């Protein structure tokens, strides 16, 4: 019995050693799902530490460089965690990503990019806006692709409407993420610029979402900005124009 247990442990250790030291490109070729929306190319290194030359998301370019390093201590918590870092000048990324039985986690995660690049990755390149997007998450927990908890900020700097002959500068804005009872809430506010914006976006446990923003031009806003805001619809008694969205995201299909 004892000999059988020792042989089993030895065999498992041998197999684990082969996996962690195997070429990442070989393992990716064996195990990557054929229908995955993420396609990785130019792999080098091993599961312990390595680099991908490029990533595509739904056939759209996402990153031109991504490095990873395994965080061994995470295994003691039942997670597989990596430090991720991108050297892509169009999209900077630095932080920790982990997966385990409780879902996926991001910690101390920072991402910076031009807004046009982010929209292109998301398949929304046609939207006439530009600027800089900076995401700073102290933590994010996902289960079945839906946020369970989050804390951090998203900042849009130099946001501009580009449909006009000359871009219309709208200013800088910030959304801070936190939990409010059973909802995840992003509180939105103006940092600087010609617009007074405030409101919130909410994600609920049943996968419903909603957003309500109040927008009005500041007294010294340029005429182009005022005309753009008026296109939203009628203003209320305080001069605010309201933007509302709501809906529900379907739950993922159960695994076969």
Task: Explain how this protein is built.
This protein is an alpha+beta fold. Helix content is about 15%, strand content about 55%. Strands 1, 2, 3, 4, 5, 6, 7, 8, 9, 10, 11, 12, 13 and 14 form a 14-stranded antiparallel β-sheet that branches. Strand 4 (about 65-70) and strand 5 (about 80-85) form a beta hairpin. The longest helix has 20 residues, at about 1-20. It is globular. Residues about 5-20 have low confidence and may be disordered.
As a percent range, the share of strand residues is: over 45%
Main β-sheet: number of strands, strand sense, barrel status? Answer: 14 strands, antiparallel
- List segments where confidence is low: pLDDT < 50 over at least 5 consecutive residues: 5-19
Query: What pattern of helices and strands is seen along the backbone?
Result: HHEEEEEEEHEEEEEEHE
DSSP summary: helix tally: 4
Average pLDDT rating? 87
- Which term fits the overall shape? globular
Can you lay out the helices and strands and say which pair or pack?
Blueprint: H1 2-21, H2 24-31, E1 38-45, E2 49-57, E3 60-63, E4 66-70, E5 79-86, E6 91-100, E7 103-114, H3 115-121, E8 129-143, E9 146-161, E10 168-180, E11 183-192, E12 195-203, E13 208-217, H4 223-230, E14 241-248
Antiparallel strand pairs: 1-2, 2-3, 2-4, 4-5, 5-6, 6-7, 7-8, 8-9, 9-10, 10-11, 11-12, 12-13, 13-14
């Amino acid at each position: 019995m004892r000999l059988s247990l020792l042989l089993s442990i030895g065999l498992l250790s041998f197999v684990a050693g082969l996996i962690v030291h195997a070429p990442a490109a070989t393992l990716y070729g064996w195990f990557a799902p054929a229908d995955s929306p993420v396609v990785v190319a130019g792999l080098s290194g091993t599961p312990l530490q390595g680099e991908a030359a490029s990533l595509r998301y739904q056939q759209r370019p996402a990153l031109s460089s991504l490095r990873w390093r395994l965080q061994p201590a995470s295994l003691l918590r039942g997670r597989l965690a990596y430090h991720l870092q991108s050297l892509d000048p169009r999209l900077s990324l630095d932080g920790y990503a982990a997966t385990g039985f409780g879902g996926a986690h991001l910690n101390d995660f920072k991402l910076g990019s031009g807004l046009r690049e982010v929209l292109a990755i998301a398949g929304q390149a046609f939207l006439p806006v530009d600027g800089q997007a900076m995401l700073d998450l102290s933590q994010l927990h996902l289960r079945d692709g839906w946020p369970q908890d989050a804390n951090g900020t998203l900042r849009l700097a130099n946001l501009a409407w580009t449909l006009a002959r000359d871009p219309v500068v709208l200013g800088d804005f910030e959304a801070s993420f936190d939990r409010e009872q059973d909802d995840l809430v992003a509180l939105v506010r103006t940092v600087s610029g010609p617009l007074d914006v405030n409101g919130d976006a909410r994600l609920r446990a049943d996968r419903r979402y909603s957003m309500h923003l109040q927008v009005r031009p500041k007294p010294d806003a340029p005429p182009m900005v005022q005309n753009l805001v008026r296109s939203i619809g009628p203003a209320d008694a305080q001069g605010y124009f309201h933007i509302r969205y709501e809906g529900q995201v379907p739950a993922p299909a159960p695994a076969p």
